Amino acid sequence: xxxxxxxxxxxxxxxxxxxxxxxxxxxxxxxxxxxxxxxxxxxxxxxxxxxxxxxxxxxxxxxxxxxxxxxxxxxxxxxxxxxxxxxxxxxxxxxxxxxxxxxxxxxxxxxxxxxxxxxxxxxxxxxxxxxxxxxxxxxxxxxxxxxxxxxxxxxxxxxxxxxxxxxxxxxxxxxxxxxxxxxxxxxxxxxxxxxxxxxxxxxxx
Length: 205
Hints:
By secondary structure, the chain is of the alpha+beta class. It contains seven helices and ten strands.
């Protein structure tokens, strides 16, 4: 049973996969999420370079890491597979049919692409590291206060470990990962100083 009193006392919160599946119904790709031990199996079909690609991969999610103002989440990909129909067009389809694409090193494949978005801060081997605060949705000016709140909030309470348990994603929480001093410094930098700056310049925005 998710989020029992005992689990909450251990600092663990569980998010049912059913909730995430519902959120993905509007995604442009047809995706399915399944438990695979403590990893999350993602499988589905996407269109890439004009070819329908059926894929599956087991994703291991690390805990959230605070590095300066960045909030980093590393994903590691295991047992990645992809296939295309025999008549699928394009160079990607040809490469997959020939077995010439090393799918054990997803990060290297991503790093080789031009014009990577700013939220991908590292891609190497089978790992990709994302800076969640660089996601376009959070970079919108009207969400600046929300973003600053997330920066401060994750200094007070962060996710130390992520794993799949039954049909849920279990988030192991950790309080004050940078200590009380780290929380205080972040709150001053993100909330107090910007507020004083707006007051000094007469900008109420």
